[in-house]
Amino acid sequence: MHDPSHEPDPDCLELFKKLSAYIDGESDPGTCEKIETHAARCIKCSICLETLKQTVAFCKSLPDEPVPDDFSKRLGTVFAHLIKSRSG
Amino acid sequence: MDFKASNKRWRQDPGRQKRMRPKKEKKEDMDPDAPLIEAINGGGMDLFPELVRRYEQKLYNFGFRMCNNAQDAEDLVQETFMNIFKSLNNFRFESKFTNWMYKIAARVCLKKRRKKTVADEQNLSLEDLAARFRNQAPEETPKWARQPIDRVLDSELAEIIKRTVALLPPRYRVVLVLRDMEELTTQETAQVLGISTANVKVRLHRARLLLRDKLQGYMAHA
Ligand SMILES: [Zn+2]
């Protein structure tokens, strides 16, 4: 862990920039290894990674917003009219 | 706790890998919507409502995530289908139909831009965001980030997330919604928005960091 009163380790900033790619499985094995080794000894980066991972997981887990029934019906009517006016 | 081992396990988890693996688009794969679209364009205009039924849920969800408002989401769905109705006969399968659909929807949505956003955060550099995180970071991984999703993601938190996402600057928001909510690939998102894949990645990272910081602030006071 680094002394928080000091400027961040340049490694931290480097890693910070790559976290999303790591989470998305888009990092090469060398970068993954580097990130995992660094996060294991740097608590700030570990927290940064875990909270970001969870943020992404939240986004992917939000339930769909159901289309309101009346809107779906209205939409059907709108296009039924349009089609009729085009073909008629 | 061995963070290195746990991250490695997380990264190599087969279930996760399956979810994360980029969908490979093989050229010979036919667009699943091709038969319907060809039928509509071949004179079967009365089949158009079938296309509406097929995608109204997806578009409504996209609109809702972008605006966090039912009325705006309905407007977006209707306007997008109107545009599709008018120009479907010009669609030549240069991309998947759904990517073309999202392209129209994104254009409709970004044109509106009525809501206020956290404009001052638009230009924060990654260095600024890193420094801000360091200054505000808790002493240990907070509980909300350690618990299983279904234990922590209740309806109240879901509301907070939706509200916060809708306030992100539009060019970041649209990338986050397409990638992390509609689950398009990086390539598909780039195609939909007409930007490079590198740009998609940069915007996505920034959007996630902004959202994370807001959630962090909310959870710290909850
Ligand atoms: Zn670090």
Features:
heterodimer; A: 88 residues; mainly alpha; elongated; B: 222 residues; Rna Polymerase Sigma Factor, Chain: A; 2 domains; binds zinc ion
Structural summary, described in words:
- The complex is a heterodimer of chains A (88) and B (222).
- Chain A has 4 helices and no strands.
- Chain A has 88 residues and is mainly alpha-helical.
- Chain A has one domain (10-87).
- The longest helix of chain A is centred in the middle third of the chain and has 19 residues, at 43-61.
- Mean pLDDT of chain A is 89; it is low at 1-6.
- Chain B folds into 2 domains: 25-114, RNA polymerase sigma factor, region 2, helix turn helix motif (Rna Polymerase Sigma Factor, Chain: A), CATH 1.10.1740.10; 120-221, Arc Repressor Mutant, subunit A.
- In chain B, 70% of the residues lie in helices and 0% in strands.
- Chain B starts with a helix and ends with a helix.
- The mean pLDDT of chain B is 89.
- Residues 9, 11-12, 15, 38, 42, 44-45 of chain A line the site of zinc ion.
What does the secondary structure layout of this molecule look like, with pairings?
The complex is a heterodimer of chains A (88) and B (222).
Chain A: H1 10-23, H2 29-41, H3 43-61, H4 69-87
Helix pairs in contact in A: 1-2, 1-3, 2-3
Chain B: H1 3-12, H2 14-20, H3 34-41, H4 48-67, H5 70-87, H6 97-112, H7 126-136, H8 143-146, H9 149-152, H10 155-166, H11 170-181, H12 186-193, H13 197-221
Bound molecules: zinc ion.
Helix proportion of chain B: 55-70%
**Run of helices and strands of chain B:** HHHHHHHHHHHHH
The CATH superfamily label of the largest domain in chain B reads Winged helix-like DNA-binding domain superfamily/Winged helix DNA-binding domain
Number of self-contained structural domains of chain A:
1
How far is the first residue's CA from the last residue's CA of chain B?
26 Å
Percentage of residues in DSSP E strands of chain B: under 5%
Q: β content of chain A, as a range? A: under 5%
DSSP E strands of chain B, number: 0
Mean pLDDT of chain B: 89
Which chain pair shows the most residues in contact? A-B, 55 and 69 residues
Low-confidence stretches of chain A: 1-6
